[in-house]
TrEMBL record:
CDD domains: LD-carboxypeptidase. The keyword Protease applies. The keyword Protein biosynthesis does not apply. SUPFAM superfamilies: Hedgehog/DD-peptidase. Pfam families: VanY (PF02557). It comes from the Bacteria. Its EC number is 3.4.16.4. It is an enzyme of class 3 (hydrolase). GO terms for biological process: proteolysis. Coiled coil: none annotated. Residues 229-251 are annotated as: Disordered. This is D-alanyl-D-alanine carboxypeptidase. One of its GO terms (molecular function) is serine-type D-Ala-D-Ala carboxypeptidase activity.
Length: 251
């Protein structure tokens, strides 16, 4: 009995120690963040407020089947039009998914802190290359979506190969028509990795309900580090770079 019980007790003690250690680190990793830059950015990321649940709505079921994808309600008409257009292309019909939509600051804290020590991110600076610190993610606004695809081929979620998938290429060529722009294009000077899956909504036209407030929220980011492809400021015309082929896949 002793021979069995002791290793089991040791295992649980070690497990409890690991869990409590990870929780303690996750709880205070943001304390290691440096002071904001002169322009208010934290490790390259702009500041964004949390969004009240009252202005969020569930995204269409086909985008996140059975899942929990909530977005700003003003985004919904454009999002539906985007999905309708995508469904007219046999190559990607029914294949677009949302991997992540609105994320509260509390969830962002878990994501940001919880992956430190993984994927080569040994500290907050390395982590900020691939993830925004809590209070600095576009996902907190409810205007950002991480898209994914059901295409076979081994491209996981939120990795560079998404840019080379059929859905990734379709978004690159068409998303701006529906008010979405790529926040972190290849080679951006913001110090954030290329994220071909991450698109923020700013409205296909400035006259669209909600577009003005979305653009105000992203004004600093759009002025200093333009999206590409980007939504034009005047109307729903895609930028001239839209027809360019997606950048080479890096991972
Ligand atoms: Zn994202």
């Amino acid at each position: 009995m002793y021979r069995v019980a002791r290793p089991i007790a040791l295992f649980f003690a070690a497990f409890a120690l690991l869990v409590s250690g990870a929780q303690a680190f996750a709880a205070d990793c943001t304390a290691k963040l440096s002071a904001p830059d002169a322009d208010g950015r934290q490790l390259g990321h702009f500041t964004y407020p949390d969004t009240p649940k009252s202005v969020l709505v569930k995204a269409p079921e086909q985008l996140a089947p059975g899942g929990r994808c909530y977005v700003r309600k003003e985004m919904l008409p454009d999002l539906k039009r985007l999905l309708e257009a995508a469904d007219k292309d046999p190559a990607i019909k029914g294949k677009i998914r949302a991997i992540s939509c609105h994320r509260s600051i509390a969830v962002q804290k878990m994501l940001f802190c919880g992956r430190i020590g993984h994927d080569g991110a040994s500290g907050v600076h390395e982590r900020a290359w691939a993830s925004a610190p809590p209070g600095h993610s576009e996902h907190a606004t409810g205007y950002a979506i991480d898209f994914g695809t059901t295409e076979p081929g081994g491209c996981g979620h939120a990795v560079g190969c998404f840019g080379a998938t059929k859905v990734g290429k379709w978004l690159y060529a068409n998303a701006t028509k529906y008010g979405f722009e790529m926040s972190f294009p290849a080679g951006n000077k913001q110090g954030v990795e290329w994220e071909p899956w991450h698109w923020r909504w700013v409205g296909s036209s400035i006259d669209e309900p909600g577009a003005e407030s979305a653009r105000r929220l992203f004004a600093k980011a759009r002025a200093q580090f333009p999206a590409n492809p980007a939504v034009g400021d005047a109307a729903a015309t895609p930028s001239s770079d839209v027809d360019a082929p997606p950048p080479t896949v890096k991972s």
